[in-house]
TrEMBL record:
This is Protein N-acetyltransferase, RimJ/RimL family. Residues 40-206 form the N-acetyltransferase domain. The keyword Transport does not apply. InterPro entries: Acyl_CoA_acyltransferase, GNAT_dom, N-acetyltransferase. GO terms for molecular function: acyltransferase activity, transferring groups other than amino-acyl groups. PROSITE patterns: GNAT. Pfam families: Acetyltransf_3 (PF13302). Keywords: Transferase. The keyword Zinc-finger does not apply. It comes from the Bacteria. SUPFAM superfamilies: Acyl-CoA N-acyltransferases (Nat).
Amino acid sequence: MTYPFLLEFCFGELVPTGYVISFLILPQTPLLSITPSERLLIQPLTYADAKVIIRIRSIPEVSRYQGWEPKEEKEIHSLVDKMNDCGLLAPGQWFQFTITEKETQRLIGDCGIHPVASDRRQVDIGVTIDPQFQKMGYATEAIHSLLDFLFKQTDTHRASASIDPRNEPSIRLFEKLRFRKEAHLVESLWFKDEWVDDLIMAILRKEWLLPNKAFQAMPVSLRSAGIAST
Ligand SMILES: CC(C)(COP(=O)(O)OP(=O)(O)OC[C@H]1O[C@@H](n2cnc3c(N)ncnc32)[C@H](O)[C@@H]1OP(=O)(O)O)[C@@H](O)C(=O)NCCC(=O)NCCS
């Protein structure tokens, strides 16, 4: 059964009241569901998703640039427990969603948000799509939905992605979503037994809220600062 609740219920005092969203009231999981996109459902991760998520994240081409490689169901369960304990937009805590193809009801990937520990209005984002379903625009659609939620229904100020510069599909994905390349850190991460570079891409709330045409017309150098709020 779905009940409307104030967003304040989830975010405590940090979010202005007045926003109303739907929470799916399931046993032990009073969590929200993001407005569905045209082809996808974006829902909080649950215990029941563990097997599929482990399968997708174990595929070598999927895990190559990913830090989180759950091997056992209990790892997923403990993340779900933490999500339930901390709620959405808890500083320093990943909150993971599943991505389901509406038409077939197949779970085809996941996406996550990670508010930074020092200020939860800055949110890191990650996404994974099962290779069988890649290059169909699904990651673009899922992250678009997630950003719409973050920027239009919460007080998120900035969304960013930390990407291995060799991960071309991921760079292309975030470029398409109008993220700006902000930094290329050289050998800044010890990852899978080697030093690797880290590309930081980001977008601000005021940029996301600009109409697409106005954004495209703006020189890249001006996209980050001095934009009149809409
Ligand atoms: C990155 C990833 C999520 C993209 O998912 P996807 O559903 O295939 O992405 P989309 O279909 O929405 O495509 C987005 C853009 O990336 C491009 N793209 C997708 N796969 C590509 C590839 N293998 N090579 C080059 N470009 C690619 C698409 O063509 C599209 O750009 P376009 O519209 O200009 O053609 C997917 O490749 C993946 O799960 N990779 C493994 C996990 C990972 O590394 N995640 C990123 C962590 S930050």
